[in-house]
Specification:
37% helix; alpha+beta; ligase; protein biosynthesis; nucleotide-binding
């Protein structure tokens, strides 16, 4: 949420943010609501002052025996009370409308963010890991094919049990995914993160606090949704990212200066409707409705947030460096950055098995595995998270940051493709072997059931 003083003192800055982020709202109406509210507040103050004066006069008039004048003052006091009540009711209505309108206004991009319309205008900062690529098979098999061949991924049975966009991860595939999660958590503990295991359902106040509501309600799964469109606080949603519960841990609280910076990490399953519904990529383990992720959430002093953003980026990158996976870092442009972020970096891992998107000179494609973002005080204002710089000073809003450390399925995709061998096996990255009892190769399993038999073998 933006500080309302920005709307009053620099509305053109907000108009610019709406334009470069492609957000369509009636900002003139928002300004008109605020202007009328301020006029009513001023009028209310005048009426209260007049009513106080009349009340004082009533007593004085009665003491001096001026009963007729006292009665007129009493009647005027009643008129002022009625008028003031009408003004306060209208002001409360406008305040509620203004608060709802504020929730629709996006974060203002930082001055360093590239201005652009879409992903084509993102700027590549650098690449890592391409100077020493491992030897790959002449033709790398896409993850969805080799995953099924080795009986690591079962999309058909996942769709049968739940629906499209869900899957079973089996055998060594499941062990690999568990290993990745434990490995990531271990890496970030070294970096000073405290583990948090959050609730999976979150309430509407939490979704509003981090910016998922009202903007992205259609992308989230609502638990026990009601028939109306109200987002009551006792409604529950399956979390789209652990950013939501971990950030809202401190909702409506005041932290101390010595508490900061706070660095929390949380593993969670995540649920999103939008994944796999765009028609561009519905096959495989890239765009799915349920996926695992380790999330990094930081709470910092405002003057430290941009240094912390660079540190957070480095902490997320460390996972890919230790896995020896090639990747690149993008500086996201205004039109591809998102509603809540002031500045955002994307980390994209290289998956060599499929040319569904533009990849490096070696072919393959880029897969986003982490978005590292600074929200400044945008989320803190929505969630009411403050800190007190000194015990005798007023509380102020802190800054929040978050990044994926990292999204597990897409790293799985990259491993299944980048670590393929000529014989169809998968080499387990060295960094993961301690989490897989020293296992070095994934060679697959015998599929179960008649459907796995070759032609004529079931007769």
């Amino acid at each position: 949420m933006l500080d309302r003083s920005i709307l009053r003192e620099d509305p053109e800055k907000v108009r610019w943010a709406l334009d470069v982020k492609g957000v369509d709202v009636d900002f003139d109406e928002t300004l008109a609501i605020d202007e009328e509210w301020r006029e009513l507040k001023a009028k209310g103050d005048e009426l209260r002052h007049e009513r106080n004066e009349v009340s004082s006069e009533i007593g004085e008039l009665k003491q001096t025996g001026k009963e007729e004048e006292a009665q007129e003052a009493i009647e005027r006091s009643g008129e002022l009370k009625t008028e003031l009540q009408e003004i306060e009711e209208r002001a409360d209505e406008l305040e509620e409308r203004f608060e709802r309108a504020l929730l629709e206004l996006p974060q203002i991009p930082h001055e360093s963010v590239p201005v652009g319309e879409d992903e084509a205008d993102n700027e590549e900062r650098y690449r890592e890991g391409f100077d020493d690529l491992r030897d790959l098979p002449e033709e790398v098999v896409p993850h969805y094919d080799i995953g099924e061949e080795l009986d690591l991924l079962d999309f058909e049975r996942g769709a049968k049990v739940t629906g499209g966009g869900y899957q079973f991860v089996k055998g060594d595939g499941a062990r690999l995914e568990h290993a990745l999660i434990q490995f990531m958590l271990s890496v970030h503990r070294e970096q000073g993160y405290t583990d948090v295991f959050p609730p999976i359902p979150v309430n509407s106040a939490s979704m509003r606090g981090t910016g998922q509501l009202p903007k992205f309600a259609e992308d989230a799964y609502r638990v026990g949704a009601r028939q109306d469109d109200e987002y009551d606080d006792d409604d529950l949603w399956l979390l789209p990212t652990a950013e939501v519960p971990v950030t809202n841990m401190y909702r409506d609280e005041i932290l101390l200066d010595e508490d900061l910076p706070l660095k929390h990490q949380a593993y969670s399953p995540n649920f999103r409707r939008e994944a796999g519904e765009h028609g561009t990529e519905t096959r495989g383990y890239v765009r799915v409705h349920q996926f695992n992720k380790v999330e990094l959430v930081n709470f910092v002093r405002p003057e430290e947030s941009y240094d912390r953003l660079e540190g957070l980026l480095s902490e997320a990158e460390e996972v890919l460096k230790r896995l020896e996976l090639p990747y690149r870092v993008l500086d996201m442009c205004t039109g591809d950055m998102g509603f809540t972020q002031a500045k955002k970096y994307d980390i994209e891992v290289w998956a060599p098995g499929d040319d569904m998107a533009e990849g490096p000179e070696e072919g393959g494609r880029w897969l986003e595995v982490s978005s590292v973002s600074n929200f400044e005080d945008f989320q803190a204002r929505r969630a009411g998270i403050q800190f007190r710089p000194e015990h005798h000073k007023s509380a102020q809003y802190l800054h929040t940051l978050n990044g994926s450390g990292v999204a597990v399925p897409r790293v799985m995709v990259a491993i299944l493709e980048y670590y393929q061998n000529d014989d169809g096996s998968i080499t387990v990255p060295e960094a993961l072997r301690p989490y897989m009892d020293g296992q070095e190769l994934i060679e697959g399993h015998r599929p179960v059931g008649e459907s796995a038999l070759g032609a004529g073998e079931g007769e």
